[in-house]
């Protein structure tokens, strides 16, 4: 990414903040849509999402002084709903408790600079593989939520019929949004969601058609206006003690691990692209930025959301000239008004929010090109990680298998020196997790 605009005025920073907000605004809709699968109230998650996004971005701007938005992360929210709650049977209160404890661990590691040592122990190829696997997982969930991919007793899954008007609406919305993104339109995902929502109105929304409701298209039967008071029903609902069961430690581990290198990868990537570095060549204000990430995750567990993390979409604002914390503060404040629009946002159909999942998933596949596929002892564990995350419908299973296979293949290939001591510990923990 080429940076061309110097940080020459407050106006530049504010405009950059608006651009970043438009690029990351989709999380207000998509996060509640995903966490609703964990039986969490849409309006409650929406309020929590806004609180996390505002809090994290303001802290990043005022404390870390970086032009980076912090909000509930994609991928980790899918793990929360579909693996922690639906897969392992945690209540959403216990899952929120696990998010809280991952924030505590994360904060400890960041405060004592331990996080960098752990990140250094994780092979770069596996980091890229995990990011790519999460992308496929999110994409798969998006197609499922849109009922474009459906159950099939013979082949497990298959594509739904093209003759279904709801699927055609989804495809039109997906194509429209893809064109906007290709033309580099700011806020393309939001425009795509609005466009698809408008297309969905003739599909029985106003009349409560059962098939439309089954496809995630809400009706106007209980519509109560555009504005309502924020829903704080999830505030302090985290079961902090209940989440400390031994069988739930693997969930806390995945929460911690995912945000552990997701945040630092974002900081490194943005600093490389923008030149926001300290005299030693490291990302600017790295420790404060990591502490912000950690504190936001802890805060997220308390207010009712999945983990918070630095958003790679912040690159949009940086491209527009954002260089200071004013950019993050502007974006953070823009989240606040949407706490009051939950009745309007809850009318967005599942086929519209699923478009964001599919396309964000495609963006997350970028790191797959950075894996050296010609080195077998790196390519094979990376491949296992990428495919097993969506195939097993479990982020933790894919990651754990990746660690174990990497360590074993390297060891029996006579490359023991390439295995970091800390990676042995992580792999051992992963093995016990898979053995359960």
UniProtKB/TrEMBL annotation:
Membrane: is it a keyword of this entry?
Answer: yes
Question: Which InterPro entries does this entry report, sorted A to Z?
Answer: Azg-like, NCS2
Major place of residence: membrane
Q: How does it sit in the membrane?
A: Multi-pass membrane protein
Q: Which domain of life is it from?
A: Bacteria
Subcellular location, record wording: Endomembrane system
Entry keyword set:
Membrane, Transmembrane, Transmembrane helix, Transport
What are the TM regions of this chain, as residue ranges? 12-34, 40-62, 95-112, 124-145, 165-181, 188-204, 216-236, 248-270, 290-312, 324-341, 347-368, 380-407, 419-435
Q: Does the keyword Repeat apply?
A: no
What family does this chain come from, according to its entry? Belongs to the nucleobase:cation symporter-2 (NCS2) (TC 2.A.40) family. Azg-like subfamily.
Q: What is this protein called?
A: NCS2 family permease
């Amino acid at each position: 990414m080429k940076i061309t605009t110097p940080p020459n005025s407050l106006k530049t920073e504010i405009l950059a903040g608006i651009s970043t907000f438009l690029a990351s605004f989709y999380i207000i809709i998509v996060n509640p849509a995903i966490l609703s699968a964990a039986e969490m109230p849409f309006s409650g998650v929406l309020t929590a999402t806004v609180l996390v996004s505002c809090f994290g971005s303001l802290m990043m701007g005022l404390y870390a002084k970086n032009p980076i938005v912090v909000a509930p992360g994609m991928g980790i929210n899918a793990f929360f709903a579909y693996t922690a709650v639906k897969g392992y049977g945690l209540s959403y209160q216990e899952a929120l408790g696990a998010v809280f404890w991952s924030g505590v661990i994360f904060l400890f590691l960041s405060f004592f600079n331990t996080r960098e040592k752990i990140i250094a122990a994780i092979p770069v190829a596996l980091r890229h593989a995990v990011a790519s696997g999460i992308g496929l997982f999110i994409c798969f969930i998006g197609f499922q939520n849109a009922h474009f991919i459906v159950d099939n007793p013979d082949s497990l899954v298959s594509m739904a019929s093209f003759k279904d008007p709801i699927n055609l609406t989804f495809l039109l919305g997906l194509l429209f949004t893809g064109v906007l993104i290709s033309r580099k339109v700011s806020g393309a995902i939001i425009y795509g969601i609005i466009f698809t929502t408008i297309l969905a109105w003739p599909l029985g929304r106003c009349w409560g058609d059962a098939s439309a409701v089954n496809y995630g298209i809400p009706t106007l039967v209980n519509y109560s206006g555009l504005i309502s008071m924020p829903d704080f029903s999830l505030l302090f609902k985290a079961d902090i003690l209940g989440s400390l069961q031994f069988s739930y430690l693997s969930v806390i581990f995945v929460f911690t691990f995912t945000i552990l290198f997701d945040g630092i990868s974002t900081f490194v990537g943005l600093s490389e692209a923008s030149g926001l570095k300290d005299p030693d060549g490291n990302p600017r204000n790295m420790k404060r930025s990591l502490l912000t990430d950690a504190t936001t995750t802890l805060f997220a567990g308390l207010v009712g959301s999945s983990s918070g993390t630095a958003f790679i979409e912040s690159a949009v604002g940086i491209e527009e000239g954002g260089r200071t914390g004013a950019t993050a503060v502007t974006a953070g404040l823009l989240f606040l008004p949407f706490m009051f629009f939950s009745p309007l946002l809850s009318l967005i159909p599942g086929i519209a929010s699923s478009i964001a999942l599919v396309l964000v998933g495609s963006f997350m596949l970028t790191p797959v090109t950075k894996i050296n596929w010609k080195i077998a002892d790196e390519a094979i564990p990376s491949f296992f990680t990428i495919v097993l995350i969506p195939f097993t419908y479990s982020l933790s299973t894919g990651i754990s298998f990746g660690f174990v296979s990497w360590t074993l293949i390297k060891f029996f290939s006579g490359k023991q020196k390439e295995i970091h001591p800390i990676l042995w510990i992580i792999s051992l923990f992963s093995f016990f997790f898979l053995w359960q």
